[in-house]
Amino acid sequence: MMADTLLAFGKTSQIIPLSLPKGTEKLCELCQRPANLQCTDCRVTFYCLRECRIQIPLIKADLLKICRSVAQGKLSEGKHKEALPAAQFYLRCSIDIHGPNSAQLVPVYLLLAEANMGLGNLASVAELLSQAEWAVLKSPECGHGVYQQLHRSLGRLHAAIGNLDAALVNFANDVYYASEEYGLDSTVTCRGYFLMADVFNKQGKIHLVRSLYSEVARTLHGHLTHHLKIHIQNVQNHSKLLEPSLDKSQRTEVDATLRAILEFWQANPRRNSGQIALVALCLAMLWFLGGDSLKALGFGNVALQACQLIPNHDLTEPIQGLLQLVQSAQTEPRPGSG
């Protein structure tokens, strides 16, 4: 049984003292006692007993989850510098467990690349993405989700350095793999369209920007309307939310996407009141579901004002209904206030 377990976690070999620099002391990764075994997968980890070799991956698997969670949480808050140490330790543990050439390192490289992108370290981003590409090339079994994340990161890098044609190619691949993995109307695919539109905007192709922004708003409106209906049903039934709404990271990304689109339509000479109403309504729903009534009320009023410029517009009733919900939520007594 122990032999099978060792094979599952990788092999060790006896340390040959003459092969090590003079005076170098190798300590067990787990208990810090003098080591006499070396991991043959990574060549950088040492153990005193095979029992320690078996325990290390289990401990580091838990560390992986913690580091990934911390890094992703900091990135969602825009704290790229604080995310970097957790992401770097995440990489180290991943290499120890999976080896230096595993396809399972790709998400780790992409997380590190995102942290460095936020800090403007584009040279580091390019190096990390090259490592990710190499790992993917050596592992043809990688799924569509991995390819989607890789192409999105490559697209963002090329957009940052001004290579807009290459950015568009990668974002197009991003959209393709996202639609294969998550569906055409998913929020992941939707974000790919938004990133393409940003590149077209830099190229001055405004007609394509308008088309893509309209598609993004339509998709997000559908998702948010779905979540709002579930929220209303559960409130009416006095039950807890049965289907999770957007988490903090998703809400931050959707908020940034919708705000950029709203700003575009408001600043555009060809002011499109219908699109302004739709996007502002999306933002109002997003923040109502997120528990911020003031933001929901503000965006709801923007949506209503835009909608009133269009006689008998289809969104008038949904906007008014949402504003009533927001106002009711503001007047409801808080638990324990009585």
Arithmetic mean of pLDDT = 83
Low-confidence stretches: 1-21, 334-338
Kindly estimate the percentage of residues that lie in beta strands according to DSSP.
under 5%
The total count of strands amounts to 3
Largest sheet: 3 strands, antiparallel
* Portion in helices: 55-70%
Strand line-up in the sheet with most strands: 1-2-3
Number of helices: 13
Describe this structure as you would to a colleague.
- Strand 2 and strand 3 form a beta hairpin.
- The chain has helices spanning 2-9, 50-76, 80-98, 106-118, 122-137, 144-161, 164-182, 187-202, 206-236, 248-267, 273-289, 293-307, 316-331; strands at 12-14, 37-39, 46-47.
- Helix 3 runs antiparallel to helix 4 and helix 11 packs antiparallel against helix 12.
- The protein has a three-stranded antiparallel beta sheet.
- It is mainly α and 338 residues long.
- It is built from 13 helices and three strands, in the order αβββαααααααααααα.
- The chain is globular, with a radius of gyration of 25 Å.
- It is 70% helix and 2% strand.
